[in-house]
């Protein structure tokens, strides 16, 4: 029987918390931005690394995905962010836009899985498109004030985080129902 994927829930919670911080206090984020970004990327990197080592290996000795590479890259980027703070402040919209964009694309990617599980597609599709659009907008369009940017990114992070938690719970429930049907 499928268990809740806690890595996905923790990642979604990080997005949700980070987005909440951006929405509640957008003008104070700029001062601590590089540290927030670095810690977020470091935690996500560690989760990917840990997930890689606990992932089941198939008969050929292979693992699905690129958890080790993504995790190591995120940890390296987290260190880079702390070391090159001044240079990165100009890249802030792009970097956080990437985080929001990735979350949106993951939501859209999961639509195929949801369809196979017999889950509704409307809410994940809307949240995926909205999150992807917010990520792209943050990357492509400069903002006059950083507080507007952080509010905008915060919305994308919150939408992506909430959608990620809801998706994981829906998939868990659908998998449990499928297992019950197969047992009968």
Highlighted features:
single chain; 184 residues; mainly alpha; 7 helices; globular
Model description:
This protein has 184 residues and is an all-alpha fold. The protein has one domain (6-183). Helix content is 83%, strand content 0%. It has helices spanning 6-24, 26-54, 67-83, 85-89, 92-117, 122-140, 146-183. The longest helix has 38 residues, at 146-183. The mean pLDDT is 81.
Task: Produce the secondary structure layout.
Layout: H1 6-24, H2 26-54, H3 67-83, H4 85-89, H5 92-117, H6 122-140, H7 146-183
Helix pairs in contact: 1-2, 1-7, 2-3, 2-7, 5-6, 5-7, 6-7
- Distance between the terminal alpha carbons, to the nearest Å? 14 Å
Instruction: Please give the count of helices.
Output: 7
Q: Give the biggest beta sheet.
A: none
- For the record, the count of structural domains works out to 1
Overall average pLDDT? 81
> Roughly how much helix do the residues carry, as a percent range?
over 70%
Give the DSSP E fraction (strand runs of 2 or more residues): under 5%
CA gyration radius, whole angstroms: 18 Å
Q: Unreliable stretches, pLDDT < 50, 5 or more residues?
A: none
Question: How many β strands by DSSP?
Answer: 0
> Helix- and strand-based class?
mainly alpha
């Amino acid at each position: 029987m499928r268990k809740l994927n806690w890595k996905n829930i923790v990642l979604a919670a990080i997005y949700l918390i980070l987005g909440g911080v951006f929405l509640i206090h957008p003008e104070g984020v700029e001062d601590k931005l590089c540290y927030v970004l670095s810690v977020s990327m470091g935690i996500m990197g560690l989760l990917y690394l840990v997930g890689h080592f606990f992932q089941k290996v198939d008969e050929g000795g292979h693992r699905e995905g690129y958890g080790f590479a993504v995790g190591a890259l995120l940890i390296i980027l987290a260190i880079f962010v702390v070391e090159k703070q001044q240079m990165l402040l100009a890249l802030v919209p792009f970097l956080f836009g990437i985080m929001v964009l990735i979350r949106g694309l993951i939501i859209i990617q999961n639509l195929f899985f949801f369809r196979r599980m017999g889950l509704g597609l409307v809410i994940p599709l809307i949240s995926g498109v909205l999150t992807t659009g917010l990520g792209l907008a943050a990357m492509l369009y400069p903002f006059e004030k950083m507080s507007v940017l952080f509010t905008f990114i915060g919305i994308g992070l919150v939408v992506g985080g909430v959608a990620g938690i809801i998706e994981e719970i829906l998939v868990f429930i659908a998998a449990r129902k499928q297992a019950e049907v197969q047992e009968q």
